[in-house]
Design brief:
The chain has about 375 residues and is of the alpha/beta class. It has an 8-stranded mixed sheet with strand order 8-9-5-10-4-11-12-15, sandwiched between helices. The chain has a 3-stranded mixed sheet with strand order 1-2-3. A two-stranded antiparallel sheet has the order 6-7. It starts with 5 loop residues before the first helix and ends with a helix. The protein is built from 13 helices and 15 strands. The longest helix is centred in the C-terminal third of the chain and has 27 residues. This is Iron-sulfur cluster carrier protein.
Length: about 375
């Protein structure tokens, strides 16, 4: 089957009515994103928490109507990206006064020095980082961000990997951001707002930039984007422990960092450097994620530990930081990223989809506590 057009799906939303026929699904929510995978149409509808209660009973009828309306569609899956109201953000402290005080998350040592201010109207900023490339950091960042949105948080995702921006492809975003009052307005998809330098340059163009140009681009992505009211901004950090990481830690008040590693010793050495780097920058480490933890054969379900297993858990214990879970190595993760839909959307019941949702649930619970503490303090 071919991908349906947006008008077809929006027409179905207009036709499906509540039990008392007083309103339609289209009036209770707006079409956020959609894609077709293996003949199944996946649809995300953006709404608020109050209207989500009215929309939820309509989902089975919506799925049946979509299958009937879209030629060749063998099934449909509709999800709601419902958000609770964001807490009233505290005004950003001017840099001269020291900025915001970093938050203490996950039992990490309390930072001794302040960092830069938060972006306007953003509750907390967290980083997804790795000591080296090729460990699945960006895939983890995308699925974590969308998963946090499914947990009911208002989420933004910033791709700070200037040399290798992959967010547009992984999110299925092809349009450039709009400009309003001199600020970039990030596009929304799968329930979150997302911004990347990859939206502003050709996908095949090599970013042959020296350090000062990279730092300038990161500063613009932080300062010239109108994120709106967010509970959390997730930053997909570039790999390594260089200038870009230092700039981000100095320019904004990072509330914590998540380290992504694979199980083998060489990757764990780099993960340890990443933990040490954030410690020196007074950024709490929320925990370590073991990506590519094991491979499960799709034909016989035999489990093979290609890169070893349990190394990240042992490293977390040794370094005194939380262990956040294991993500399997599955072809579906790669396929969903190539097709522009995170695995938490494309295959939510798969082992990888469930692992990422569990990660988002754990991190989301921590962030909710921090937001409540911050609201009380303010």
């Amino acid at each position: 089957m071919t991908n349906p057009d947006r008008t077809t799906i929006e027409t179905v939303l207009q036709q499906v009515l509540t039990a008392d026929r007083s309103t339609s699904a289209a009036k209770l929510g707006s079409l956020d994103a959609f894609m077709v995978r293996d003949g199944v149409l996946h649809v995300a509808i953006a709404t608020d928490r109050a209207r989500a209660a009215q929309l939820q009973p309509l989902l089975p009828e919506l799925e049946r109507a979509l299958v009937a309306a879209v030629p060749g569609c063998t099934g449909a899956s509709v999800i709601l990206t419902a958000h609770r109201p964001a807490p009233t953000p505290a005004p950003a402290a001017p840099p001269a006064s020291g900025g915001h005080r970093p938050l203490n998350l996950g039992g990490a040592p309390k930072p001794k020095a302040p960092t830069g201010p938060l972006p306007p109207h953003v509750g907390v900023v967290i980083a997804v980082a790795s000591g080296k490339g090729g460990v699945g950091k960006s895939t983890t960042a995308v699925n974590l961000a969308v998963g946090l949105g499914l947990e009911g948080l208002k989420v933004g995702l910033l791709d700070a990997d200037i040399h290798g921006p992959s967010l547009p492809r992984m999110m299925g975003l092809k349009d450039q951001p709009e400009v309003a009052d001199g600020h970039l307005v990030p596009p929304r998809k799968w329930g979150i707002s997302a911004m990347s330098i990859g939206m502003l340059v050709n996908e095949t163009e090599a970013m042959i930039w020296r350090g000062p140009m990279v730092m300038g681009a990161i500063n613009q992505l932080l300062g010239d984007v109108e994120w709106g009211a967010l509970d959390v901004l997730v930053v997909d950090m570039p790999p390594g422990t260089g200038d870009a990481q230092l700039t981000l830690a100095q320019k904004t008040a990072l509330a914590g960092a998540i380290i992504v590693s694979t199980p083998q010793d060489i990757a764990l050495l780099d993960a340890r450097r990443g933990i040490t780097m954030f410690s020196k920058m007074n950024v709490p480490v929320l925990g370590i994620v073991e990506n590519m933890s094991y491979f499960c054969c799709p034909n016989c379900n035999h489990r093979t530990e290609l890169f070893g297993h349990g190394g990240a858990r042992a490293e977390a214990q040794e370094m005194g930081v939380p262990f956040l879970g294991e993500i399997p190595l599955l072809a579906d993760i790669r396929a969903s990223a190539d097709e522009g839909a995170p695995i938490v959307i494309a295959a939510p019941d798969s082992a990888a989809g469930q692992a990422y949702r569990s990660l988002a649930h754990t991190v989301g619970a921590t962030l909710r506590r921090v937001l409540e503490q911050k609201k009380t303090a303010d």
